[in-house]
Amino acid sequence: QCAKIDSIIADIEKQIETLQKYKKSLITETVTKGLDKSVPMKDSGIEWIGAIPMHWEIKRLKFMLANCTENMKVGPFGSALSGSDFTDEGKWVYNQRVVLDNNFEDNDTFISEEKFNEMKGFTVNSGDILITTRGTIGKVAIVPQNAPEGILHPCIIKFRVNEDLIMPELLKLIFNESDFVKDQFTLMSNATTIEVIYSYSLKDIILPVIPTEEQKKIYN
Questions:
Q1: Which percentage of the chain shows pLDDT scores above 90?
Q2: Do the beta carbons of residue 184 and residue 206 sit within 8 Å?
Q3: Among 113, 121, 118, 70, which Cα is nearest to 92's?
Q4: Where are the alpha helices (H) located in the chain, listed in sequence order?
Q5: Other Cβ atoms within 10 Å of 85 Cβ, number
Q6: Within 13 A of 199's CA, how many CA atoms are on the CB side?
Q7: pLDDT single digits (tens) 148-204
């Protein structure tokens, strides 16, 4: 009986792996070719993307950021926020775990009110897109309304996009559920593994510019 169960588990795990690969390829295919296979296509000018729908564009993320003074912010450097600053309670420090778990209810990293006031330049606001930059890199989460007050961890970058160009929810899907962005970081680093994402490399990520109504259909 145990052997039968183990065999079933192995089969299900293979199915899950196959479906995950299919989901990744489906997202990549859809955000480069669209849903309607009958539309006229044009050369994107980027070899690994190939042809895209005639009415789409390709832009780097730096040209898709929101039109505001602080559309991208890197977490504090070095001694600005050290281990001795962390407390058992207080204001949140938005760390990698928060982003990876997409968990805005619980946290284990805090700073005092005094330290928070000192570091208000790194405040996290609702609507910010947070991205992990070390370890498990390139995963994103969108800060919800009424999220706890807090600041960026040194391993997090926050940014905001122009929502006329790309839905944050679709961007999150592209970053988290496909290899479209991950492969670009690998190409940039000329390596099979990437250890750190910097703001300049994040800004150079290429994304499709898709009409809003099509974005909604693709996301759905």
A1: 80
A2: yes
A3: 113
A4: 2-33, 96-101, 113-118, 168-177, 180-189, 199-203, 212-219
A5: 17
A6: 14
A7: 999 999 999 999 999 999 999 999 999 999 989 988 988 887 666 667 899 999 999
**Which candidate, 86, 94, 93, 165, places its Cα nearest to that of 129?**
94
Euclidean distance between CA atoms 141 and 144, whole angstroms? 9
List strands edge to edge, sheet with 156-159: 72-74, 156-159, 129-132, 140-142
Contact 209, 63 (CB under 8 A): no
Tell me how far apart the alpha carbons of residues 210 and 164 are, in angstroms, rounded to a whole number.
10
Look at residue 159 and give its three-state secondary structure. strand
Measure the CA–CA gap between 124 and 91, rounded to whole angstroms: 11
Separation of alpha carbons 142 and 113, rounded Å: 24
